[in-house]
Design goal:
By secondary structure, the protein is mainly beta. The protein has one domain: Protocatechuate 3,4-Dioxygenase, subunit A, CATH 2.60.130.10. The protein has helices spanning 3-13, 109-112, 173-178; strands at residues 55-57, 67-75, 87-92, 116-120, 126-132, 146-151, 158-159, 164-165, 187-188, 191-193, 196-200, 203-204. The strands form 3 sheets. Strands 1, 2, 5, 10, 11 and 12 form a 6-stranded mixed β-sheet that branches. It has a 4-stranded antiparallel β-sheet with strand order 4-3-6-7, with no helix packed on it. The structure holds fe (ii) ion. Fe (ii) ion binds at residues 1, 145, 147.
Length: 214
């Protein structure tokens, strides 16, 4: 969760970054992302942005574990108009709290691991992902979380509050008080859904994002 520390680590490890210039635009309006370590990983999508779907299954989906399905609607800054064409990038640890690697990772996958996925909202602002519930960092009391970066058409990418779990014992009152609610609350309330648990999070573009262009 600590973007500043990880940024410092990356600066000293000189991590190579994949160039994805074809998906970036110099015309994108700057957004004050507030220390967005690794946000450019959104450009490492193996599928071109214009071909992305609103739903994605992460690579761990078929493995044993607590299956998790998260869906929601992305709304424009007015808080009520569904936002189409928003790129969403997520990544998280496995159930042991490690960002797992297979050994051939390039770019930001060396830090984020291979449990990651990309989506693009449809005309209704809809997105959904399927994965296994992550665990807390080893030997820590850090709440388990799923990182998320978003990119709106014509704007720079920025991070919003991680997905966290309302029934996580590490999501204490103190931890909750630290949440910035960037893009709205990321706290997931779990609901049983057959062989999986389900949760919903709506995202509000620009909400609590300093310097967000009007
Ligand atoms: Fe993390």
């Amino acid at each position: 969760m600590n973007h500043i520390i990880t940024l410092a680590i990356l600066l000293f490890t000189n991590l190579p970054i994949i160039s994805c210039a074809q998906q970036q635009s110099t015309n994108d309006i700057k957004v004050d992302v507030g220390g967005c370590e690794g946000c450019e990983a959104i450009y490492e999508s193996p599928i071109p942005f214009d071909k992305l779907e609103p739903m994605v299954w992460l690579p761990d989906w078929t493995l044993p574990g607590q299956k998790l399905a998260v869906n929601g609607t992305v709304y424009k800054a007015d808080g009520k108009t569904p936002a189409e064409g928003v790129i969403i990038y997520i990544y998280h640890t496995d159930h042991t709290g490690v960002y797992p690697q297979k050994g051939d990772e390039k770019g930001w996958a060396k830090r984020h691991g291979y449990l990651r996925g990309w989506m693009k909202t449809d005309k209704n602002g809809f997105y959904k992902f399927f994965t296994l519930r992550p665990g807390s960092y080893p030997d820590s009391k850090n709440p388990a979380h799923i990182h998320i970066t978003i990119k709106e058409p014509g704007k720079k990418e920025y991070w919003i509050d991680e997905f966290v779990f309302d029934n996580d014992p590490f999501l204490t009152t103190t931890e909750r008080s630290r949440l910035q609610n960037r893009g709205g609350s990321g706290i997931l309330t779990m609901k049983p859904g057959g062989s999986m648990v389900k949760a919903e999070r709506n995202i509000y573009l620009g909400k609590n994002i300093p310097g967000y262009p009007k």
